[in-house]
Amino acid sequence: MSDWRTGSRWEHRRTDGSGVADVVGTVVESGRPNRLVTTWAAPGDEGGVDAYSRVTFDIQRHADIVRLTVTHEDLPDEDALRDATSGWAAVLSNLKSLLENGSPLPQEPWLMPSR
Predict the structure, then answer these.
(1) Which of 3, 23, 94, 108 has its CA 20 to 30 A from that of 16?
(2) Residue 71 forms beta bridges with which residues?
């Protein structure tokens, strides 16, 4: 858990009840309700100087709609970029379904085999 304040540690824990954290990091910037910047690393790499990438969530209102922009940067290599790209596509598709229908997708989209 996190209080989402600048400097706080955060964890992304699985929703399956296992308590496993897949990603850990620190809140770099917290500009509620429009901006959140965090570092990301695998739990085993926590504390490593070059282990962290950076994710920025920007929310912009425009009349009756909202735009969410997710920027994931400082990835170590092309493989990490490819994994992040497919991972974020799955996560954001799931979020869209949740917001539009009130429930997430019936399967975990990040488990789909790549092409």
Answers:
(1) 3
(2) 56
How far from the centroid of its chain's Cα atoms is residue 8's Cα?
16
Q: Looking at residue 36, what is its pLDDT?
A: 97
Residue range 86-113, pLDDT digits in tens: 889 888 988 898 889 998 887 776 677 7
Greatest alpha-carbon pair distance for the chain in Å reads 43
Place of tokens 């282990």: 51
For residue 18, report the phi and psi dihedrals to the nearest 5 degrees. -75, -20
- Tokens representing 67? 């735009």
Tens-place pLDDT, residues 39-58: 999 999 988 878 899 999 99
The whole-angstrom distance between residue 28's C-alpha and the CA centroid of its chain comes to: 14
Tokens of 27: 């809140």
Size (the chain), residues: 115
